[in-house]
Fold this protein.
Amino acid sequence: MDLAEGSLLTAAAVAAGQTIPPAGKSIVGVALPASLLPGEPLRSGDTVRVVATPGQEGEVTEGKQVEIEATVVGLHPGADQGKTVVAVEVPEAEAGELAARAATGKVAIVLDSRER
């Protein structure tokens, strides 16, 4: 909240800092062009799925597609050559696979319901 000039703060008025990412979680940056992002603007806190895509040379494989559930923690438009870098929080055990897939550029982000 805004504070008026000269206001005094007590320890009770200040929230404890939050460690980001929390234990057991990791943050991975996924740089994507607008065509691989949902048409609806993403917001911090959104639940998304990062889905592996076949890229230019392939067909979609049969069976279940590789999907990693994530939570959006930040957006950095234009940070990487006209792409938006979406910072997502994922379980620590899935961070390596997501980082490797994101590095290939062969992923898309799907926005799941904001209904809570």
The chain has a mean pLDDT of 86. Residues 24-111 form one domain. The longest strand covers residues 67-80.
